[in-house]
Amino acid sequence: MAWSPDKTTVNSWNEWDPLRHVIVGRADDCHIPPEEPALDAKVPEDSDMRGQWGKRPQETIDRANELLDKFADQLRARGVKVDRPTPIDHSLPVTTPDFHTASQFGCMPPRDVLLTVGSEILEATMSYRCRWFEYLNYRPLMQQYWEEDPKFRHEAAPKPRLTDADYHPDYLSEKIGVEKRLQWAAEKFFVTTEEEPLFDAADVLRFGRDLVVQHGFTTNLKGIEWLRRHFPDHRVHTVNFPGDPYPIHIDATFTPLRPGLILNNPQRRLPDDQREMFHKNGWEIVDSAQPAHNQPPPLCYSSVWLSMNVLVLDPKTVCVEKSEVYQADQMDKLGLEVVEVDLRDAYAFGGGLHCSTADVYREGGCEDYFPNL
């Protein structure tokens, strides 16, 4: 499929083919949202974010935007076309017939909302009330792509109601403890119920004909079944990682680098029975290097394992956060050229290098990387 920098073509089937066109988020007007069931379950019990909400300090927003702008420039210097969202007013409340929350979140992590599969970009349901309208930050780009690419399919999953029935009340206690959380994760008992389909796009990894989807806090089994029905030509596989007490989004846990090679968080190993599809098809799953930091940055939802939240530019080149020296060293030993990107001061706005981007175009088509299934 031909690509031109002057006109949009949407095409991306996996996480590693040569990247030619991408969306990079912005930190504008990012808020710490008010308490709500999904958010309360995710915020670590000892986090400095508990009990806080409101717009993030402007100097931190400016710093994050400075880093995101530089990241976008680095990608452009490598021949990648970069688009940016148009931020809405995230201070506005979200009110529906079913719930009210006093503010929204932001638009730094497009990967959470937008799932690109072939010529389609799908807007995820989202399972946080504060993120209900987050797709609006990207609608100007979706409209542009639709005008420029006659084969582009712009889809949106059914918006969930997000009533209290969507959340297990057991998770509303601030003092659950890590041991109990790990037990619940092993039992696949998460904050989200099976009331209605829920999924975040960042819980999905694309392997050509196969989609690997994490079952956890932000994606339930009905959400995975919805994806299975929506993509009938794909094989959709459910995975989970029992070692994660706060299981949201797969891309700081399981990171494909090229055909046949995946990094796995050593604290959240894929269970043996779920490894079978990879081993039967010659894939190697290696433990990721340790993070360079013992703590996340201030007011950050994410864990220190954003170290492995990398952006693969092609099967031989990968973007790694500049301070994550152990991860960079591992990539070098795996035969990958490392592009250092300074982004740690933007982590708190929604994640790392993979989170802060969404594919529009990667070279290549839909391949079958798991013929022995």
TrEMBL record:
Listed GO MF terms: glycine amidinotransferase activity; scyllo-inosamine-4-phosphate amidinotransferase activity
Domain of life: Bacteria
Transcription is among the record's keywords: no
GO biological process: creatine biosynthetic process
Residues forming the catalytic site: 200, 249, 355 (amidino-cysteine intermediate)
Enzyme kind, highest EC tier: transferase
Keywords (A to Z) from UniProt: Transferase
Gene3D superfamilies, per database record: L-arginine/glycine Amidinotransferase, Chain A (3.75.10.10)
InterPro entries (UniProt xref): AmidinoTrfase
Coiled coil regions in record: none
Transferase keyword on record: yes
SUPFAM superfamilies (UniProt xref): Pentein
Enzyme Commission number(s) of this protein: 2.1.4.2
Region (Disordered): 35-54
PANTHER family in the record: GLYCINE AMIDINOTRANSFERASE, MITOCHONDRIAL
Family: Belongs to the amidinotransferase family.
Protein name: Inosamine-phosphate amidinotransferase 1
Protein source organism: Pseudoprimorskyibacter insulae
Phylogenetic classification of the source organism: Bacteria, Pseudomonadati, Pseudomonadota, Alphaproteobacteria, Rhodobacterales
